[in-house]
Design a protein that fits this description.
heterodimer, A: mainly alpha, elongated, B: 234 residues, mainly alpha, transmembrane (chain B), EMC3/TMCO1 (chain B), ER membrane protein complex subunit 3 (chain B)
């Protein structure tokens, strides 16, 4: 209950520190890119094709979301305005993932 | 699994070099732009304007925690007819950014050069040197619509649409490396061609009102501050 009211207050007062938010968002972006790189490499080297690769990507997203939530001690909203940890920046993440997946798949399995 | 065998030499001399070249061109672009672009000079007046506006907004939002006299004193300081900063700023003569200013012209020219030279020279060179190779295969099935996108420069009707030609591989790298540049160079990098293109498009779109008139912002803030009904919250 208190959590809810404080959330509402936060939205009204805009008492987020913009510099801190920018820094947090950068950290998230960094984490997302690293995660999609790692997942892409793994998928390419393992030679996953089709949906299996995307499933691997989303598994890694899930793992990362759990890690983020642990890191923020369950208090996601005190670090970020409103996004939730599962739907963060999938555009860039998927692009990176697909690039590395294609690259490593090509290097290892096509030739 | 692969119905088409590719020469491993293609991997060594086409597939890998495209990735490496695209990546290092991006890095080079970043450092060259650091070299050429001088930092935007910020004028003292603009900073003062921004800070005063911020201050007025904070007073408006959090003024209810101040006693009435303190609130009124601050409001008076900001909005007084003759001496308040917000009122004075409204009377200032307009001075929009001058588009014919030579220093800005050179900046714009430099920016355009930074976009165009890598685009034309490197893109053209890659297309010319590495044209006509089938380089790799995407590990997921794609529909025929993707053939035009992924097989530029290779016009084979019977080729499965999952195969990627060298020219398209270059474009794929160009777009996909964006977040990796962020990883390597930090978030304020200039390596990214695709982003630069977007910026340019946004710039041409917003050319009609290049910079919002600060006087309008001051007027709005002044009015809002005049209108507010002070109510002590504590």
């Amino acid at each position: 209950m208190s959590d809810k009211s404080s959330k509402a207050e936060k939205k009204n007062d805009e008492c987020y520190n913009t510099a801190a938010i920018t820094n947090n968002v950068e950290a998230l972006e960094f984490g997302r890119t690293c995660q999609s790189c790692a997942a892409g490499m793994a998928a390419g080297i393992l030679g996953l094709t089709g949906f299996q690769g995307f499933i691997l990507y989303f598994i890694s997203v899930g793992i990362q979301a759990v890690i983020w939530n642990v890191k923020s001690q369950g208090n996601w909203l005190s670090y970020f305005p409103e996004r939730n940890s599962f739907t963060w920046s999938h555009g860039n993440g998927l692009l990176t993932f697909v690039l590395l997946w294609v690259f490593f798949y090509g290097m290892v399995h096509v030739y | 699994m692969t119905d088409l065998l590719l020469d491993p030499a293609i991997r060594t001399w086409v597939f890998l070099p495209i990735v490496v070249i695209t990546f290092f061109i991006g890095i080079l672009r970043h450092y060259v732009s650091l070299l050429l672009m001088n930092k935007k000079k910020v004028e003292l007046e603009n900073i003062a304007d921004g800070q005063y506006l911020l201050r007025a907004r904070l007073l408006r939002e959090n003024g209810r925690f101040l006693p009435k006299t303190s609130f009124n004193a601050r409001r008076q300081y900001l909005c007084a007819e003759e001496t308040g900063y917000l009122s004075k700023a409204q009377q200032r003569p307009a001075k929009g950014p001058n588009p014919m200013d030579p220093s800005q012209m050179t900046e714009m020219l430099k920016g355009n050069m930074m976009n165009m030279i890598p685009m034309i020279v490197v893109g053209g060179w890659i297309n010319w040197t590495f044209s006509g190779f089938v380089t790799t295969r995407v590990p997921f099935p794609l529909t025929l619509k993707f053939k035009a996108m992924l097989q530029r420069g290779v016009d084979l009707v019977s080729l499965d649409s999952a195969w990627v030609s060298s020219a398209s591989w270059y474009f794929l790298c160009m777009f996909g490396l964006r977040s990796i540049y962020t990883l390597v160079l930090g978030s304020e990098n200039a390596a990214d061609q695709s982003k630069a293109m977007e910026d340019q498009m946004a710039m041409t779109g917003s050319a009609v009102n290049p910079q919002a008139d600060p006087r309008a912002a001051f007027k709005g803030e002044w009015e809002a501050l005049q209108m507010i009904q002070h109510q002590f919250a504590l």
